[in-house]
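Weekly modeling sync, notes
Attendees: AB, CL, MP (scribe)

Item 1: holo prediction request
CL wants a bound-state model with 4'-deoxy-4'-aminopyridoxal-5'-phosphate before deciding which constructs to order. AB pointed out that an apo prediction alone won't tell us much about the pocket. Agreed to run with the ligand included and paste results into these notes for async review.

Input as submitted:
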Amino acid sequence: MPIYNFSAGPAVLPQPVITQIQAELPSFQGSGMSILEISHRSDLFAQVLQDAEQDLRDLMAIPDNYHVLFFQGGGTLQFTAAPLNLAPHHRIGLLDSGHWAQRAADEAKRVGTKVTILGSSAANHFNQLPTVVQPIDQSLDYIHLTTNNTIEGTMMTRLPATGQVPLVADMSSNFLGEPYQVSDFGLIFAGAQKNLGPAGLTIVIVRDDLIGQVANLPSMLDYQLFADKNSMFNTPPVFAIYAAGLVLKWLKAQGGLNVMTARNHAKAALLYDFLDQSQLFTNPVKTSDRSTMNVPFVTGQADLDAAVIQGAREHGLLNLKGHRLVGGMRASLYNAMPLAGVQALVDYLAAFEAHHR
Ligand code: PMP
């Protein structure tokens, strides 16, 4: 029985990447040493880091005036790093689109940033994206938004007009899953453990004129320092960068982000079409705002939801339990989830429904 992993993160990785890691693990590139053992200052790793950056630049067409930085600390550390680096006047705007946006607001406030909510969909249980209140105060340092709301299952593909105020995007859960134009953003950050690789690595893409504005930041939070040191101020997460690098090469071999996006839309459509005609399952998200990455759905009865999840497990369909804040089920359909996995899920749900009507 094939196993399909619908985890929201850490999440499924491409099978060929896992196989390659396994094959290369004892001796990296004939060195007699594992990638787990080599120095981050070695030539071997220097090449890994350089390739990962270049492949990411190629895939996302990242302009030359943007730095690509490799951080640790997850998306959560960037909730602190972004205001410290990019908000010299301590005033930001934020779109309140769900749990992770609120966590970003909390962390910004902890470092003395005034956070103005420019739109909220809290009253709609975050089942749709917030509408941005215009006009936007042009003296804000930046505007924080979450391109994909992992828990609530909404995704932003059209960006709000913000005039001269830079956008800062938490792209953690649809990084490389949708083809955004980097130049629309001042800063993009994303934890790797959803669409890119294992946990322990966070990608930061930042426009060069926005950094270096604030002196004496804590070193591990200083974008300028990381840019100056080529992400090697201290020991970077060597294994996570290596594994992410393999995923980037896999993405290129698949045909790049347009191919992946088309596949992601086809996978999501398969599941949404099923949910929309179902008499048992519902997805509560406004159609135009639905995520292609994370699809929450419910039966409306907690005991039935539990039975769905249990039965799914027995069919090799794993990690479908919804986030504890919203309950029900959630299927995450990141790049490495094949269409066959979504088809298996839909077949299972249809059979479950037929049995329980
Ligand atoms: N932002 C979003 C949109 C997320 O989904 C997550 C993790 N689920 C985070 C931030 C936090 O990421 P991390 O656990 O890497 O700190």
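Recorded for review: The domain at 256-355 is CATH 3.90.1150.10 (Aspartate Aminotransferase, domain 1).
Action items: CL to compare against the apo run; MP to circulate these notes.
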